[in-house]
Amino acid sequence: MIKVDKYYNTNVAGIYAIDDVIPTPAFAHVASAPGITCVENSRPSS
């Protein structure tokens, strides 16, 4: 398993981890939420 913060950041800058590689339940009906979180928080701040 890969450790991540609340925005799915790993300890390597610019690398995110979601789904089967993090210690959370993986349910198909909520699988898109981590992906959306990663995208929203990977954009540069204005």
Give the topology:
Elements: H1 32-42
Protein model, in words:
The radius of gyration is 11 Å and the shape is flat. It is built from 1 helix and no strands. The protein is 24% helix and 0% strand. The mean pLDDT is 82. The protein has one domain. By secondary structure, it is mainly alpha-helical. The termini are far apart.
Give a quick summary of the entry.
This protein has one helix at residues 32-42. It is mainly alpha-helical.
Order of helices and strands: H
Count of the separate structural domains: 1
The residue fraction in helices comes out at: 10-25%
What does the main sheet amount to?
none
Key words describing this protein structure:
single chain, 46 residues, mainly alpha
